[in-house]
Specification:
Elements (H helix, E strand, L loop, with lengths): L1 H20 L8 E22 L2 E17 L3 E9 L11 E7 L2 E6 L5 E12 L3
Antiparallel strand pairs: 1-2, 1-4, 2-3, 3-6, 4-5, 5-6
Length: 128
């Protein structure tokens, strides 16, 4: 009986503390307006691959997505690079984003909430 009571007390403590300690923190969404977007495809560079142990230079391409957004206080230039699909934004449309470390993350509402992570390449304050 005493063992069962200790087990119940222990599980109650773990449930009480565990739910707060392991609760997933939801990021604070902020609003901005999209000023411009430029999705570009860069070619001309080469990468070194190995075939049967021999180095081979293979042409490669890099895609980039440069977006300019404006918040109430700042205008930010953001860059997303990679080989995957990029988010397409409506110019002069409003977006929701959140800050994750040194990046801006824009959830894609039309693609099951896929996170698009952008590096901040330029920022300027807007005069009041």
């Amino acid at each position: 009986m005493l063992v069962q009571m200790k087990a119940i007390a222990l599980s109650a403590c773990l449930l009480g503390f565990g739910s707060s300690a392991f609760a997933k923190e939801h990021p604070k969404l902020q609003s901005a307006t999209v000023i411009s977007q430029n999705i570009d495809y860069h070619t001309g560079s080469e990468r070194q691959w190995f075939m049967d142990g021999n180095p081979v230079m293979v042409p490669s391409a890099q895609r980039s997505n440069v977006v300019v957004i404006e918040t109430a206080k700042q205008r930010l230039t953001l860059t997303e690079t990679g080989f995957g699909s990029f988010i397409t934004l409506l110019i002069h449309g409003d977006i929701k984003y959140y800050v994750e470390g040194k990046h801006i993350v824009i959830p894609d509402a039309y693609n099951n909430g896929k996170k698009h992570k952008f590096a901040i390449t330029h920022s300027e304050n807007i005069a009041p």
